[in-house]
TrEMBL record:
Residues 108-141 form the Rhodanese domain. It comes from the Bacteria. SUPFAM superfamilies: UDP-Glycosyltransferase/glycogen phosphorylase. GO terms for molecular function: glycosyltransferase activity. It holds the Pfam family Glycos_transf_1. This is Rhodanese domain-containing protein.
Length: 397
């Protein structure tokens, strides 16, 4: 029953979204050509348009420009804006989930902003957080956040979670950084569509696929802002990298079965590889991944069609010179150029992942070639410095 209601709400939101651009033209034509302004029919149509949020003036004043959503561009302010980033839904979901990649990314965003001279904070319900990152940024409570926005007009409120109700409710406007299309496309869609109508000033996406999805659905510009990696912490130390060590993470119930298939194939080729499970707080993950030559990303993704798994672990592996081998799902496929800085294999094919791993260790010079390309790509395209122009565009700085 709950799934039925959720799907129904999703469908109704899509119908409304599709119909909304057509209504201004229809009302304009009716107002100008068919219906005198002083009639009851005209007033009823006007009230209907106001309720839809597409008109708050005389229908005769609706122009073609009103059919487009115009992104507000900010002039250079006299002072730098305060920036707040949060996933806070309320007391039960305070916004500081441990081992949550989105929480990590918002901390990175706040760190980058502070390095550029902006006052920025992560907002949780009571200002506290679980200590699991190497570098937690300044946190404030929802109460302090509400107080600060009362006395400051020049602010930016950022979230990646459309149902972060407590934070969004208190935010006068919103900057939405989409990191997970699985929720955006499905259970969060009605909420997001409503936010586009009422609060969203600008949107960013971590992949081109998510960027294109937003532009197609909402007819609005969407900035490409890929995942952030702090290379002041995530950098290679050659002495710590151990030959023939392959890292992996527990990606669900299939992990053990897939790993056995890969290990069996490797053993049949006479290769002696050490498989190291990577887990724990960030410091532990960093040290274990730094010791590996290759990282197997056995994430098969959340969505039945396009998969989708966070590209952050393989991106962090790349920062360490650790070569990623991943399934072809949304996320990893957009940071790994197959055969250049890593390997992409079809989803659900651990046998092909094993084949790619064997090739890395049997083709002379292959490991060194991919490692060189991986580090060159990271240092050129995936630094804080290279991300800063996109952050400025996204937040209208």
């Amino acid at each position: 029953m709950i799934n039925f209601l959720g799907r129904t709400r999703n469908v109704l939101a899509r119908i409304r979204l599709a119909a909304t651009p057509l209504v201004p033209s229809l009302l304009k034509d009716l107002a100008i050509i068919l219906i005198p302004e002083n009639t009851d029919i005209f007033q009823a149509l006007r009230n209907f348009a106001v309720k839809l949020g597409i008109a708050n003036k005389s229908l005769k004043d609706i122009s073609d420009n009103d059919e487009q959503v115009v992104i507000q561009q900010f002039a250079e302010p006299a002072s730098k804006p305060l920036v707040f980033a949060s996933f806070c839904c309320g007391a039960d979901a305070p916004g500081h989930g441990k081992f949550n990649g989105g929480v990590k990314e918002l901390n990175y965003l706040v760190k980058l902003l502070r390095e550029q001279g902006y006052e920025a904070y992560v907002v949780t319900y009571d200002g506290s957080y679980d200590s699991w990152l190497l570098d937690h940024q300044p946190h404030i409570s929802m109460e302090d956040f509400s107080r600060l926005i009362t006395y400051n007009q020049n602010i930016r409120c950022v979230t990646s979670w459309a149902i972060a109700e407590a934070f969004i409710k208190n935010s006068p406007s919103l900057y939405f950084w989409d990191m997970e299309l699985f929720h955006t496309e499905h259970d969060h869609f009605p909420v997001l569509a409503n936010l586009y109508r009422k609060k969203i000033r600008n949107t960013a996406a971590i992949t081109r696929t998510i960027q294109a999805w937003h532009m197609a659905h909402f007819q609005r510009h969407c900035v490409l802002l890929p995942n952030l990696v702090d290379q002041s912490q995530w950098f290679p130390i050659s002495e710590k990298c151990q030959s023939y060590r392959v890292g992996y993470m527990n990606e669900g119930l299939h992990t053990e079965t897939y790993l056995e298939i890969i290990q069996d194939a490797v053993h049949k080729q006479g290769l002696e590889l050490e498989f190291c499970q990577i887990q724990g707080v960030e410091e532990e993950v960093l040290e274990k991944m730094r010791s590996c030559e290759v990282f197997l990303t056995m994430n098969i993704g959340k969505d039945a069609l396009w998969g989708e798994g966070g590209p952050l672990p393989p991106l962090e592996a790349m920062a360490l010179g650790c070569i990623p081998i991943a399934f072809d799902i949304l996320g990893p496929r957009e940071i790994i150029h197959n055969g250049f800085n890593g390997i992409i294999v079809p989803r659900y094919r651990p046998d092909l992942m094993a084949e790619a791993l064997i090739n890395l260790y049997t083709i002379p010079g292959e490991l060194d070639r991919l490692r060189y390309n991986t580090l060159a790509l990271m240092q050129t395209c995936h630094t804080f410095k290279s991300r800063w122009p996109a952050v400025k565009e996204f937040l209208h700085l």
